[in-house]
């Protein structure tokens, strides 16, 4: 169970901090997506496998929660100064950067290259987590799968729109 109701007060604060941090990072992207979805993004040619816009919010929320719980599990084992936690921070920063590149600056190719770096960072994080906590490593697999799909989507949008 994630939250231990019988535990001493404050025991669940680190988990809540990881969840809040990742959800705040994720929600920061709405500054760039909200104004651009009905305008710029709506005008792009998209591939047939482009999901409906409503799907992105629930998927990303789920992935951010999985990321947070995985990081919390890793933090419990290694503390903040470990290669796994450093990799987690790098992938979170790269995750945050993609949205302003794609939706804010409309740099489809730059966003694609950045997403390749993000994918590598996520795979590295998952491998490092796996070594210390297999469940934490496994929790990042849906994130890898979604970013793999998003990379294909970003590539197709770039190609269909003059790439």
Describe this entry's structure for a reader.
Helix content is about 80%, strand content about 0%. The protein contains seven helices and no strands. The longest helix is centred in the middle third of the chain and has 26 residues. The model has no long low-confidence stretch (mean pLDDT about 95).
In short:
The protein is 79% helix and 0% strand.
From the structure above, extract its key features.
163 residues; mainly alpha; Ferritin; 7 helices; 79% helix
Secondary structure layout:
Elements: H1 13-28, H2 30-43, H3 53-78, H4 83-104, H5 108-132, H6 134-139, H7 141-160
Radius of gyration (CA) equals 17 Å
Q: Looking at the structure, what is the overall shape? A: elongated
What letter string, H or E per element, gives the SSE order? HHHHHHH
Gap from first CA to last CA? 47 Å
Query: For the residues shown, what is the average pLDDT?
Result: 94
**Number of separate structural domains:** 1
Structural class: mainly alpha
CATH topology: Ferritin
The CATH architecture would be Up-down Bundle
Segments where pLDDT lies below 50 for 5+ residues? none
Major sheet description: none
Helix content: over 70%
How much strand? under 5%
Text of the CATH class: Mainly Alpha
Number of DSSP strand runs: 0
The H-level CATH homologous superfamily, spelled out, is TspO/MBR protein
């Amino acid at each position: 169970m994630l939250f231990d109701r019988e535990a001493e007060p404050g025991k669940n604060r680190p988990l809540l901090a990881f969840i809040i941090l990742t959800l705040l990072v994720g929600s920061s992207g709405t500054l760039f997506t909200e104004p651009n979805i009905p305008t710029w993004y709506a005008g792009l040619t998209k591939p047939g496998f482009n999901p409906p816009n409503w799907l992105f919010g629930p998927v990303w929320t789920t992935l951010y929660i999985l990321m947070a719980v995985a990081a919390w599990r890793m933090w419990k084992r290694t503390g903040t100064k470990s290669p796994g936690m450093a990799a987690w921070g790098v992938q979170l920063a790269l995750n945050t950067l993609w949205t302003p590149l794609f939706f804010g600056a409309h740099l489809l190719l730059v966003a694609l290259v950045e997403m390749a770096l993000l994918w590598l960072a996520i795979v590295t994080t998952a491998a490092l987590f796996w070594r210390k906590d297999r469940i934490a490593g496994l929790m990042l697999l849906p994130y890898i799968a979604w970013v793999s799909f998003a990379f294909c989507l970003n590539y197709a949008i770039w190609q269909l729109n003059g790439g």
